[in-house]
Amino acid sequence: MSRNTSPGSPKGRAPGTTGQPSAPGLPGDPASLTIGAFARAARLSPKALRLYDELDLLRPAHVDPATGYRYYARGQLEQARLVAWLRRLGMPLARIREVCTRDAQGAARQVREYWAEVEATTAARRELAAFLVDHLSQLSHTSGKDGPAMSDGSRKCDVRLRLHYAALTDTGLVRPANQDAVHAGSRVLAVADGFGPCGGPASAAAVAALRALEDAPAATTGPGTAGSEDTADPASVRPPIPAGEILNALDDAVREAVRGVRDAAHGHPAPQESGSTLTALVWNATGSQLALVHIGDSRAYLLRSGELYQITHDHTVVQSMIDDGRLTPAEAAAHPQRSFLLKALGGDAPWTPEIRLREAREGDRYVLCSDGLSTVLPPERLRQAVTAAATPQDAVHELVGLVRAAGAPDNVSCVVADVTRAPVPAESPAG
């Protein structure tokens, strides 16, 4: 487990500048500005400048010992303007301080990373807003006791979507044991890839926490198994999660997964060395939307209209280097740190996952897999195999077979699910 850290430049230095002036300006010095004049030139308020002084973000060049009045050097204007621009972006002051310690290239990278985070958060909020609009609209449409009646007195047939799914996990041809875990059910699809001495129990605990959201018995569990949907015993089916509660339920499940992963490593001499990735999809009660949770380097793909889209972002050192423009995808494939994670459940990395909503469409095919598959099969070969398979069951066997034919250096696991139409006629009115 490793984190990608970058050494900072000297504190207080503006990107591309030489920092504070070597000879601070004094009252009467033409190179010196009063706090009011400096504030106007930098488009900051005197109140903001006092705050930045207290936070050691932008120190004045000179403070009058008798009056406490602040004076600034004209050479500090560039840093002050940068601070003003970053505040307009909404960047927190602590993050601005970090930017100001970098050289110009490092500062640009910090701003790019911050804005990528803002856009990701905005996208997640956009999906949440769309979900809430759809959810509230459905509530208004179904506010009647039994819904709208047809002309013959029967109730309107409400067409929903459902999943046809299959899963397969395999030890591969090199590893002595399988530390992957998978699950596929009518509500939950999940893949976890454990690492470290307790990796197997860790991945099993992560998947078990998500499986608790299932409303029917598990379709697949355990290494070396494959399965697809079964007809559940009605007595064993639990009530589905209401659409308005799916994100909260998923957040609770992830917290339970963290506890389970840590419990799995408890008692080991080095518990921080064990953990697990987790990538899962959870359906809401209406079967029209799904929630995605992702942390680590397992992946989720969407096949739609013949095109394959990766809908997760790897939390790895090499992916961060690709994002920064320091590596190409081809170079990353052979990088010695390609398996180092920046985020995971357990271990010594941050565990906060990505959780967001997606709209489901009839005809979609979803693929979840561990990196034992994605690092072996090129994207185009993966697309061809997923497109050609007639059923999810065919797809998982084809994918694992291709990886084994290529040497299978790691455990390999995948879940494939098709979104299909499931008409559910409502009951006719009584009487």
Short description:
It contains twelve helices and 16 strands. It has 431 residues and is α+β, with helices and mostly antiparallel strands.
Based on the model shown, name its key terms.
single chain; 431 residues; alpha+beta; Multidrug-efflux Transporter Regulator, Chain: A, Domain 2; Phosphatase 2c, domain 1; 2 domains; seven-stranded antiparallel β-sheet; six-stranded antiparallel β-sheet; 12 helices; 34% helix; 21% strand; elongated
Please tell me about this protein's structure.
It is a single chain. This protein has 2 domains: 9-17 and 30-134, Multidrug-efflux Transporter Regulator, Chain: A, Domain 2 (Orthogonal Bundle); 157-425, PPM-type phosphatase domain (Phosphatase 2c, domain 1, 4-Layer Sandwich), CATH 3.60.40.10. Helix content is 34%, strand content 21%. It has 12 helices and 16 strands. It has helices spanning 35-42, 46-54, 77-88, 93-100, 104-141, 199-211, 246-265, 317-323, 329-333, 371-374, 379-388, 392-405, and strands spanning 32-34, 62-63, 70-73, 157-170, 180-184, 188-195, 226-228, 275-276, 278-283, 289-295, 299-304, 307-310, 345-346, 354-359, 365-369, 412-425. Strands 5, 6, 8, 9, 10, 13 and 14 form a 7-stranded antiparallel sheet that branches. Strands 7-4-16-15-11-12 form a 6-stranded antiparallel sheet. A hairpin with a 3-residue loop joins β5 (180-184) and β6. α6 packs antiparallel against α7 (246-265). The radius of gyration is 27 Å and the shape is elongated. The termini are far apart. Mean pLDDT is 80; it is low at 1-25, 143-157, 216-226 and 230-237.
